[in-house]
Write a structure and sequence with these properties.
Strand order of the largest sheet: 1-2-3-4-5-6-7
Number of strands: 7
Radius of gyration: 16 Å
Number of helices: 0
Length: 133
């Protein structure tokens, strides 16, 4: 299975490690409902991290005080399809985006893909007092 197809953000496809990106290079408002757009703190720059062991990435958007105000992560867990044959199959995948609101709460959008049934992916919004980890 092609893991890259499970990512919802094209910006997860950069070189491994950590990099700092400018605001124009990140589509941080994707998925943000229109009625929340004037209530979020806009990031000025982004720290981008890629995991070198598994298919995973994380982006932190930061404001003028260097505080996190946007968070996105995506990861894919795979297991052997057949222990005697090459290849792997999807066990679980998750995509998350979160925006810090002006009142300090976080609006979180999480999409979960359970197993190989990508058509059963479930997305939902929640509010939290803390940034997702």
């Amino acid at each position: 299975m092609n893991n890259a197809s499970l990512y919802t953000h094209q910006y997860f496809d950069i070189k491994p490690g950590h990099s700092r990106r400018r605001e124009a290079e990140i589509r941080w408002q994707d998925g943000l409902p229109a009625h929340w757009q004037d209530q979020v703190v806009a990031p000025l720059y982004f720290d981008h991290y890629l995991d070198y062991v598994m298919a995973a990435a994380r982006i932190l958007g930061r404001d003028e005080n260097d505080d996190a105000c946007y968070c996105a992560h995506s990861f894919v867990l795979e297991s052997p399809a057949d222990p005697l044959a090459p290849g792997r199959e999807l066990s679980y995948a998750e995509n998350l985006r979160a925006w810090r609101l002006r009142d300090g709460r976080w609006l979180i959008h999480r999409v979960i893909v359970p197993g190989t049934a990508r058509e059963e992916a479930q997305g939902f919004y929640t509010l939290s007092e803390h940034m997702p980890r």
